[in-house]
């Protein structure tokens, strides 16, 4: 019998995707985000650059966020590398549009049931991502 005390391998940490609740929670977040975009008149400038029917946008954002949060890389599998800034260049995105988009995303995140630390981390990352999409001089 060996007296060797090997430490157990560290358990892999759950991804934000797993911690938020997986596909059902990401779908709920994205669904609520686009509902808010339709319901809030103060985000009109941002809403109008989206298609009238938001179902395609909703599906793409779900697929993107799934991978971005550490879950299945659905977006990459279907569309390739996101190249988000490049894909958004045809749309005028200034601080106003960024802030309107974030208004909806922040509210949708607030309505999700999640750990406050996870919420803060996701919100900070989303804020940086949204800021990166700006392509108009102020």
Q: Give the helix level as a range of percent.
A: 55-70%
Q: How far do the termini sit from each other? A: 72 Å
Can you tell me the number of structural domains?
Answer: 1
Q: What CATH architecture label applies?
A: Orthogonal Bundle
CATH topology descriptor: Globin-like
Query: Kindly state the mean pLDDT as a whole number?
Result: 91
CATH homologous superfamily classification: Globins
Query: In what range is the share of β-strand residues?
Result: under 5%
Can you tell me the CATH class?
Answer: Mainly Alpha
SSE class: mainly alpha
GO molecular function, one term: oxygen binding
Keywords: Heme, Iron, Metal-binding, Transport
Protein name: Globin
Family: Belongs to the truncated hemoglobin family. Group II subfamily.
Q: In words, what does this structure look like?
A:
This protein has 138 residues and is mainly alpha-helical. It has one domain (16-132): Globins (Globin-like), CATH 1.10.490. Helices cover 62% and strands 0% of the residues. It has eight helices and no strands. α2 packs across α4 (55-68), α2 (22-39) crosses α7 (95-110) and α7 runs antiparallel to α8 (116-132). The longest helix is centred in the first third of the chain and has 18 residues, at 22-39. Mean pLDDT is 91; it is low at 1-7. Belongs to the truncated hemoglobin family. Group II subfamily. This is Globin. It comes from Acidihalobacter ferrooxydans. InterPro entries: GlbO/GLB3-like (IPR044203), Globin-like_sf (IPR009050), Globin/Proto (IPR012292), Hemoglobin_trunc (IPR001486).
């Amino acid at each position: 019998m060996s007296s060797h005390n090997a430490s157990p391998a560290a358990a892999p940490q759950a991804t934000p995707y797993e911690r938020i609740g997986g596909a059902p929670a990401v779908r709920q977040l994205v669904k609520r985000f686009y509902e808010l975009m339709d319901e809030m008149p103060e985000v009109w400038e941002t809403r109008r650059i989206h298609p009238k029917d938001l179902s395609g946008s909703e599906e793409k954002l779900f697929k993107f966020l799934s991978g971005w949060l550490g879950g299945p890389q659905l977006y990459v599998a279907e569309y390739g590398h996101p190249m988000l800034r490049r894909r958004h260049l045809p749309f005028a995105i200034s601080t106003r549009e960024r802030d309107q988009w974030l208004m909806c995303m922040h509210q949708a995140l607030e309505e999700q049931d999640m750990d406050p630390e996870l919420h803060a981390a996701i919100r900070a990352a989303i804020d940086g991502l949204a800021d990166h999409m700006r392509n108009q001089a102020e």
